[in-house]
Predict the structure.
Amino acid sequence: MTFKELGLAEPILKALKEEGYTNPTPIQEQSIPILLKGKDLLGVAQTGTGKTAAFGIPILHHLYEGISLRQNKRKVKALIVTPTRELALQIGESLTAYGKYTGLRNTVIFGGVKQGKQVSALNQGVDILIATPGRLLDLMNQGFISFRDLKFVVLDEADQMLDMGFIHDIKKLIAALPPKRQSLFFSATMPKTIVELSRKMLGDFDRVTIKPEQATAEKVEQGVYFVSKGNKPNLLVHLLQQRPQDSVLVFSRTKHGANKIVKKLAQAAIKSAAIHGNKSQTARQKALGDFKDGILKVLVATDIAARGIDVEELSLVINYDLPNVSETYVHRIGRTGRASASGIALSFCMAEERPYLRDIEKLIKQEVPRLGEHPFMDDASEQEAPVKRQPQRSRNKPAAKNNGQSRNTSQNRNRNRNRNRNRNKNSSNTGSKE
Ligand code: AMP
């Protein structure tokens, strides 16, 4: 199957060709025909599967082909709601790329920054609005956004929005939407609340499920070091010093922990930056941009801040803390080795974390290889797991990725770098990407 066979408008095909996309990924192949027919869609899939193009391309196609631009040019006709600023910006960049030759304009709005630039972008007029829930409702309530011309709405990463406490905002939003619309609902997992929410939002819908590849766990080379809490910083410094050229994403369970790791690394002359919810938007974007560009080699992140972030050429993930939700482990390690099999994920496990390791191994149905001796072995590293387990949240599916097709071509890498470089510039297509 090719994009051409899907019957897409010429300007979109041209842009996809320039992006280096030859064949649709499974979610694109299944979703695009449904959406081109005008049906609602429930997509059970996560970022990394090519989801953005799966919903973005049909929307661009409909807007380009079906709706007279002269009549309602630059009125919000499509709304995409996504949980984090980083995801919103990524979606904006992708739609700008796919819609490059359509003449359609998108803008991105999110909280944590002053609203002035976003309001003026809205006032200039946009066809597609990409937003995080809080700022969206805020600007709606202030009267800066009208949904009179809205035809398409996408709720992206619904389960994460729920985890982040956005459920009431989302319900308010759904109530404010015009009834005649095409609705798309995406979630990686489908707990009861999400099923109920999807029923509220969707009309006559088709469902597409993209199973997380078991392969994620098999594809990524994994290993675990048993290490005491006190020696985790030393082991981290030791490992990073051995791989100065690698791009490394370090996961910390807490924001405070992430800051502490950055300080420790600085003491060892290793430059790193932390991204988490307490950092300013500018600091987060700068850290992420520098990391994607390869200027910054080590990024320390909490799970919420890192979710969905797409970093090409990420060679190593280090779980400084093991997550107590096993699916989070699969999600984290899926950041590396995305297109090739060369990714490595190393985990630090102190005595208290051994129950988490056992849960992870149960989920991935394989043992994480023990990496044996390291220079910071002590009695505490050897100690067998005594401690209380925290209850796991129930999740239905592993949040793995990698269902997308290979996108590690040098063309793709260069394109991503260029996009990242332009991240902080205002472009005519994306009014507010600071
Ligand atoms: P997403 O799940 O939308 O975040 O996409 C994950 C990655 O896959 C992004 O880097 C996209 O540029 C890339 N991608 C999406 N669709 C395709 C495709 N058909 N061919 C190659 N790469 C793609």
Summary: Confidence is low (pLDDT under 50) at residues 383-434. The longest strand covers residues 182-187. The longest helix spans residues 51-65.
